[in-house]
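On clarity, I found the account of how folds are encoded harder to follow than it need be. An entry of this sort, consisting of the sequence and the corresponding backbone structure tokens, reads as follows:
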Amino acid sequence: MFPRASSPVSSPFSVMRRQPVSNIGTAVFIACLLLGIGGSALINRPWPALGGALIGVYFLFAVKVAQQWEKVAVLRMGKYAGLRGPGIFMIIPVIETLSDYVDQRIRVTDVKAESTLTRDAVPVFVDAIVFWVVWNAEKCILEVQKFEDAISMSAQTALRETIGRHLLTEMLTDRESLGHELQKILDAKTNPWGVTVQSVEIRDVQIPQGLEDAMSREAQAQRERHARIILGTAETEISEKFAAAAELYKGNPVALHLRAMNMLYEAIKERGSMVIVPSSAVETMGLGGMLGTTALSKITGDNGGEAPKG
């Protein structure tokens, strides 16, 4: 069973907000009201307080502030009048209204495709993240309604389409190419909205548990088969070397005896190791007679063919 995918519309990454009253407008309203009340107290008339309250209410709704990363559209009597921000700006209350504030920072949206069939009819669950940014706030405000939801739903649809065009092995081994392909598809869709999809990263590709076990057994069998082939090849090469060595030793008993001595040396050269050799081993290998004959031949040769004296 795959985990249940969340709805893309309910994504917590909100990129738009409204700001009916700014903090600066509130401060100006309070200052105007206090000045009006002070003027009324000086002249003992209510008109300064009333005038201060009206001016304060005007600035309360007229003064707006956009953050460094925000843009907002001004609509004058329903018609687009331009973009404002970042920083402080003023509008004419009632006559001019504001759209939602658009965040122009890089945003991240989580996209999931549950139980989607690959090209070879294997159900998979794919989890991806989409990095995108608003490069034209005017287009994304005027051209599409709730563009953040449109991006999430388009990304989910494009992800399903991309999965259907690839084999399971391609998705498991080449996630980067899958992300690049998905990024191109989304970028072509969202560019007319003033949005650019910078990259798409495939975080996880899950397959059914039964298929995962079968693939694991198949991979294990392939590795065992490969290991057996390597072992058989090594045995063949070793046997060929032994056969060649036997041909050399067959006509040269001295070389065979030297090889036997070398094997004994290799066995006892490690520190702390001990090899027990029977007392008859030297005679069995004929080393004593061979070495004596060799020494006698050398001495005879040194004395000009005469036997040693006394």
